[in-house]
Specification:
7-stranded parallel β-sheet; 7 strands
Length: 196
């Protein structure tokens, strides 16, 4: 069975054709879809979509672009929100220095809160990182050193640009040179329009 582990069915562009999108995904062999949260405060919208379709689930989390808007969300608040049976992951949290859409400090605080919640719940953590490999790897290593991180603790969704500098091979090399991602509980995938 194929699983679309990273979609955003709650985005306004899809509202008018949501039934069609899910139907086409099923016809293409997608057996499960996980619609990824970008704002904790909008979880009810994600849950409404997940509850509408048997094969759609969701995460709960704050995208780094929204880190200032949702600064201060605690691990305990995140943990409580994961109790819904349709919530199967935490995130999309992490660091994004490409755009100036969230202070690095708020992004790091939010990232650490999501990691702590993943540690307690055992749920996977969907990590978004762009132009922040060094800091992302450092935070993952520091948090992994605290223990309790499962071997499937994270799905790393790294944005890559076209060309040699952003190639999949180069991106994986840059992330792995710090430490084997599997040692800190990560599975890595490189995304653009499609996460492979």
């Amino acid at each position: 069975m194929l699983v679309d582990s990273h979609c955003h069915l709650d985005f306004p562009d899809f509202a008018e054709d949501l039934d069609g999108i899910v139907s086409r995904a099923r016809a293409a062999g997608i057996g499960r879809m996980v619609t990824i949260s970008t704002r904790v405060r909008r979880l009810k919208d994600l849950l409404a979509i997940a509850e509408r379709y048997d094969d759609v689930y969701c995460s709960v989390g704050t995208h780094p672009h929204n880190a200032d808007e949702e600064d201060g969300i605690s691990p305990n608040e995140l943990i409580a929100l994961t109790e819904h049976p349709k919530v199967v992951a935490l995130g999309e949290a992490g660091l994004d220095y490409f755009y100036d859409n969230g202070s690095p400090e708020a992004q790091a605080r939010g990232f650490r809160a999501h990691i702590a919640a993943a540690r307690v719940t055992g749920l996977p953590l969907v990590i978004h990182t762009r132009e922040a490999d060094e800091d992302c790897a450092r935070i993952l290593e520091e948090e992994a050193a605290k223990g309790g991180v499962s071997r499937r603790a994270a799905l790393l969704h790294r944005r890559a640009r076209a060309g040699a500098e952003g190639s999949i091979a180069r991106a994986l090399y840059r992330l792995h040179r710090h430490r084997d991602l599997q040692e800190v509980g990560c599975l890595a995938c490189i995304g653009g329009r499609i996460t492979v």
